[in-house]
Prior knowledge:
The chain is α+β, with helices and mostly antiparallel strands. The chain has 3 helices and 3 strands, in the order αβββαα. It has a single domain, classed as Hypothetical protein (Metal Transport, Frataxin, Chain A, 2-Layer Sandwich), CATH 3.30.920.
Amino acid sequence: MCVQRASGNQWKEAVRAFEKAGFRILRRKGSHCLLYKEGGALLIIPVHCAELKIGLLKKEIKKAGLTVEQFKKLL
Length: 75
């Protein structure tokens, strides 16, 4: 998954990448997946659509304390 190009299961790939960065799924209920890292931010990833908007993904990457390049390496 490229941050600029969407795939069909982009939210699943994003959640896996954030898990590799040390985040864990706090809960997945309804249309959103909440990820949490001890001493870190709370990330909210929508799962109701296959494609994440670029702006939303970049915002969550920034909240996680990662750069886009670091995030791409985790994919």
